[in-house]
Amino acid sequence: VIFLQKRCYAAARRSGSLAEPLSGLKPSKGAPLPPQDAQVSKLPNGLVIASLENYSPVSSVGVFVKAGSRYETVENQGVSHVLRLAANLHSSPFHINVDILYSAWFLTYFNTFLCIIAVFVCFLDAAVFDDPYLTFSLCLVLFSPAEVIEKLHEAAYKNTLSNSLYCPDFMVGHVSSQQLKSFVEDHFTTGRMALVGLGVNHSVLRQVGEGLLSARSGVGAPVAKSVYRGGELRVQNKDDLVHALIASEGAVTGSAEANAFSVLQRILGAGPHVKRGSSITSKLSQGIAKATTQPFDATAFNVSYSDSGLFGVYTIAQAASAGEVIKAAIAQVRGVAEGGVSEADITRAKNQVKAEYLMSMESSEGLLEEIGAQALTAGVYQAPDAVLKAIDAVTQNDVVKAAKKFVDGKKTMSASGHLINTPFVDEV
Predict the structure, then answer these.
(1) Are 33 and 178 spatial neighbours (Cβ–Cβ below 8 Å)?
(2) Hey, what CATH class is 231-427 in?
(3) How far apart are alpha carbons 82 and 84 in whole angstroms?
(4) Distance of alpha carbon 27 from alpha carbon 11, whole angstroms
(5) In what order do the strands lie in the sheet with 193-198?
């Protein structure tokens, strides 16, 4: 991306003087370009096309595929991780760098529980889609404190979301080419894909989808529904800092309940609002500070998926004080469930949720991910205004109900460190 910024600067330098002051430059008399709304359409083969023409000189295009780790089986664990790592192995680093210098685009891959994503950034020029290396790269993909969070998912679910984002140790070197091929054939199909673009005309993007991805038509393998079970996984070691995460089943992404959990998370404390800041004003920090004089850190944990979610508290404390810190954190959520939250708390938390949502989309990467996630899971895109209205609609009763769901729900716990004073899940 830095390379592209330099290229944009160089292009501007060739077109006119950049000397200071800019007295020789006259303001453009052309009419401002009209703002465009995001467009979403679906091809007959099931491929979802989503685009937003924002007139950026640099375009971003992503291919989102429902082929993340949640779709792996016991036999092919780690296959999505291996696919992502193998995406560029068909060409040497020298070839990649030369081609990027020539065509001015940047390609990267990453995977989540839900999907594998290929994103490339390029200058706004429809001819770039004809670049043979780019086409080959995308077609090849279509063919060819994390420990505690991972353990929480493993303990919480019987299937799908219990799978790790990473290839497990016992599968390293044992994921075969046939397993890769079978996984791609079952999941990399147009019925499980979304092609998303920023700074791209929608009709151009449709042509790309119709041509580039037409060979992968189909609905793919059936999708299993996540089954929440609750449980506990503990990693005992000599680390004096104990990381503990306790959660109950939360809300499905995009639902009104998910908005209530987002507001509850900010009320309890979602981490510093500024870099290297503190969370001393959060309910968790204030409550725990009354229970211990030892150093600690505590935040509310909240994730939502297409068919489930997790909400809870994440604490970091000295081994000697881990128990009192965990119990004090749970007590703060229980206090909200009993009505211990004011309208001022609700208003402040909703403003924080809205601000973080809007700021997350200030970058092209964040906006592309937001449009892609919605297009892939729901086949539509909800504009920011509608999202903000849904957040504003959260009431005090909604937040109290969300807190009660955590307090009364079946708990899941993961912990890592010297756990001599860390309670078990049935003791909190």
Answers:
(1) no
(2) alpha beta
(3) 5
(4) 19
(5) 39-42, 48-52, 193-198, 58-65, 116-123, 105-111
pLDDT at 95 > cutoff 70: no
What letter would DSSP give residue 234? E
DSSP 120: E
Can 2-12+36-216 and 231-427 be said to share one CATH topology?
yes
Each residue's pLDDT tens digit, 262-313: 999 999 998 766 666 566 668 999 999 999 999 999 999 999 999 999 999 9
Residue with tokens 């020029």: 125
Q: CATH topology for 2-12+36-216?
A: Cytochrome Bc1 Complex; Chain A, domain 1 (3.30.830)
Q: What is the pLDDT of residues 184-234, one digit of tens each?
A: 888 888 889 999 999 989 998 998 888 766 667 778 778 889 999 999 999
Question: Residue 121 and residue 123: Cα distance in Å, rounded?
Answer: 7
CB 63 within 8 A of CB 138: yes
- Measuring CA to CA, how many Å separate 124 from each of 17, 137, 263, 377? 22, 19, 39, 28
- Tens of pLDDT, residue by residue over 127-163, are 444 444 444 344 444 333 678 999 999 999 999 999 9
Q: Rounded to the nearest 5°, which phi and psi values hold at 233?
A: -135, 130
- pLDDT greater at residue 384 or residue 56: 384
- Going from N- to C-terminal start, the domains of the chain cover 2-12+36-216, 231-427
Nearest partner of 185 among 139, 225, 142, 223, judged by Cα: 142
Q: Is the dihedral of CA 373, 379, 385, 390 positive or negative?
A: negative
